[in-house]
Amino acid sequence: MSNDWALDHEHAEILTKELSQFEQLEVEQDPAQTNMVFFTMEADKAVKMAGFLEKNNILISPGRTTRLVTHLDISHEDIAYTLKKIDEFFSSRTI
Questions:
Q1: Which of 20, 32, 46, 49 is the most exposed place for a label (fewest CB within 10 A)?
Q2: Rounded distance, CA 37 to CA 70, Å?
Q3: Residue 69, SS3?
């Protein structure tokens, strides 16, 4: 296992754990080793969140199921920033 691959999986685990704290999201708790994190939420809210995140330089493809993918160009700081912006989205709105 390369270090990049291990770091990708570590980032996915962090995302899974932290996203699970948001009651508005249903995060897939997949035990398989992967660099992908899937969550579901109401589609219209996902579109609003995608717009908010895009304004903060985070791109996601909204839908009933949303997939986040970690890769070698994603740092710990990027993960923390993304989680912070998702928290800001939910904290600033009645959803």
A1: 32
A2: 8
A3: strand
